[in-house]
């Protein structure tokens, strides 16, 4: 079991950081990406994540809003919540995809109708609340030029690669730590 966990963590780190465009400045295309504005009515960028949205709370995912989606080209929206821990490993806490392209917000503890969820780093489907108070948590929203041909519970690496291949615009809201 320990070897499997290490392999999953290594694959996740590669998928998240090695040029796939999900984390960091890399882009899967040669064209520069349009920027989305991402916000939350519950916390500001670089402010602490309210503890109710962490593993000590019971509210599930925080509410999010986004704007600036290029409507003519966008076929779906994806959301990835991730963090880099003190050892430099990247963990995906939530992967949500095939959100309707006209959607501009996400309610607390919810999955939009018709949207699907991929596996997170813990190997489960759904929002895996952050637990480490010192980490920075990133809530990244992606406008995609396609709906992903994946099923609910799709593998993390495959889902992140598909998101990266179809991203035409992206934006991010970061929580500096958990309050």
UniProtKB/TrEMBL annotation:
CDD domains: PEBP_bact_arch
Pfam assignment, any one: PBP
Source domain of life: Bacteria
GO MF terms held by the record: protein kinase inhibitor activity
Record flagged with keyword S-adenosyl-L-methionine: no
PANTHER family reported in the protein's UniProt record: PEBP (PHOSPHATIDYLETHANOLAMINE-BINDING PROTEIN) FAMILY PROTEIN (PTHR30289:SF1), UNCHARACTERIZED PROTEIN YBCL-RELATED (PTHR30289)
NCBIfam families referenced in this protein's UniProt entry, alphabetically: YbhB/YbcL family Raf kinase inhibitor-like protein
Family (UniProt): Belongs to the UPF0098 family.
The name this protein goes by in its record: YbhB/YbcL family Raf kinase inhibitor-like protein
Species of the source: Sphaerisporangium rhizosphaerae
């Amino acid at each position: 079991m320990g070897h499997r966990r290490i392999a999953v963590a290594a694959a996740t780190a590669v998928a998240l950081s090695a040029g796939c465009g999900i984390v960091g400045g890399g882009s899967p295309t040669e064209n520069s990406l349009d920027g989305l504005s991402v916000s939350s009515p519950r916390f500001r960028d670089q402010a602490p994540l309210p503890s109710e949205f962490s593993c000590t709370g019971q509210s599930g995912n925080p509410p999010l809003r986004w704007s600036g989606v290029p409507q003519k080209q966008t076929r779906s929206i994806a959301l990835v919540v991730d963090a880099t821990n003190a050892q430099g490993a990247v963990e995906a806490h939530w992967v949500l995809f095939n959100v309707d392209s006209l959607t501009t917000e996400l309610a607390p503890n919810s999955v939009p109708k018709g949207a699907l969820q991929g596996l997170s780093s813990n190997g489960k489907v759904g929002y895996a609340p952050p637990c480490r108070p010192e980490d920075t948590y990133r809530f990244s929203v992606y406008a995609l030029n396609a709906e992903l041909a994946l099923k609910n519970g799709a593998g993390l690496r495959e889902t992140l690669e598909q998101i990266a291949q179809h991203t035409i615009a992206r934006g991010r809201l970061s929580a500096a730590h958990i309050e």
